[in-house]
Design goal:
The chain has 619 residues and is α+β, with helices and mostly antiparallel strands. It has 22 helices and twelve strands. β1 and β2 form a beta hairpin. The longest helix is centred in the middle third of the chain and has 37 residues.
Length: 619
Amino acid sequence: MGLRARDALVSRKPTSGKLPKLGKMSDYTAPIEDIKFTMREVAGLDSVTSMPGFEEVTPDIVDAVLEEAGKFASGVLGPLNHGGDQEGSKLEGDTVKTPAGFKEAYRQFVEGGWPGMMFSTDWGGMGFPHIVGMAVTEMWDAANTAWSLCPMLTQGAVEVLNHHGTKELQDLYIEKLVSGEWTGTMNLTEPQAGSDVGALRTKAVIEGDHYLITGQKIFITFGDHDYGGNVIHLVLARLPGAPEGTRGISLFIVPKILVNRDGTLGEPNDLRVVSLEHKLGIHASPTAIMSYGDNGGAVGYLIGEENRGMACMFTMMNNARLNVGMLGLGTAVRAYQQARDFAMERVQGGDIAGKLKGMLSIIHHPDVRRMLMSMKASVEAMRGLSYFAAATLDKAKQHPDEAERKRQQALIDLLTPICKAWCTDTGLDVCNTGIQIHGGMGFIEETGAAQHWRDARIHPIYEGTNGIQANDLLGRKVVRDGGETAKAFIATMGALDNELGAGEGEDIVAVREALADGLVCLGEATDWMVATFPKNPTLAAAGAHHYLTLWGNVTSGWLLAKAALAAGKTGSNGDAGFGEAKLKTVRFYADQVLSRSSSLKKMITQGGEAVMALAEEQF
């Protein structure tokens, strides 16, 4: 595939959009202009595409890919979103049926070569950097959150096999997964083992060149579907005599249909869908309860070493955590667009200042304007953070200098829990605000505003709850190295002060002051955490959520400050309206979000005692 697939994608005719348009939800439009701006001016696309291996990823290629992705997202995926939510996926006998248009959309997705965007040409992929792939992923997530979960998990399965699979397993599975012909899943959770993965009971027993897997898994996203091909399950299980807890878990690849040594499909494996979960949202995504080994054992093959399954699975989980952060962004984009359009059309009330006559659309009202500005600023902040993280990941993998690769890897390790938790918390907040802007209409399912919130509600729970992400940030990513990586990154962000000082206008001055204060508070909170955690981990953990929030607010504020500086150039050399809107949005963020830094620092350093003050019987 490789270059030929890339050329075919860029030269393809616009999507016909003939798939059924279902529901009354407002249309999705890919925000191409801001996506391009954020990639180039904020995340540093040029610093990625200049690295070896990305020489062919030219600006015109990137622009063409974004335009085509926008057409597919808005013309095919978007119109299926509301109807898919209403219809849902269903288990009919032994077959999972997805909503009308979903499998046809997936077929077009595969035909367009989209599944292989970020994968090596050695496996039939296109070899694009993550920063481009993540920008495209934002469009899938925004257009149709439930649909986008299937390719997201397949991507993680490829990463695991690429890093930990034997050559034989790689040769049998990766190319089919990269092409999208087969799809992948992640099987961790069991009824008694949620976040505590070490409590799982699924068993694996060796038999010849394979293992027999028995047990039950729950919450398996796209555990089965009607897209065709094969479903490749990555399953955590415990071998006889293995150590207790996570130290005794192994990882296995368990295909729905067994794969012969020549790559052809053989007999069905001993696994089945017991039922589909009845969920608050993402109704179109089939979330399955899976049973393995009802008739003696499902055939599985070991990935990595025995009892090292969690180390292997973390490759998939870290990939998924960055992608779940993108889901937070995607649902927020859709909610913002719908709320904005509604506010412009909904006529209610008059001008509070009495200057304009007659009834006005609600976008004229200050409180509605406040909510819309909050949604807009949050979306742009999440986009900056997500794209910057993607560029960091590219550098960690591809930079020619080994020392720089290690530095970038330490940084992406730090950013991963922030991206996952902060973007999903913020995205849920945006979706909630979107309902409020709709007023009573937002509480009515027909408008579609509620669906965004329902779909987004799972994101702070996915792939380790956000409390777990906060503890991970604190214990593993900050305290473990004495705050070295964190403090170095804070210093990097602080270096922007000189450029802001050379900027012009009161908006830049306000942004500079707010960012400087945020960085001081983040630095002091980090020093407190590094000093406190070894002596009193409970006290430190009580402030972990606020600490992660402070990291998200300040890091995104730094990236938006870079956007504000670039917006001045855009205003003078390009679209003056776009540049002005960007600058005013960043000023709003500085005034309304970065201004909370000192209170967050206080909650982190002084609020822990109150969190743990009550005895259990006092609740």
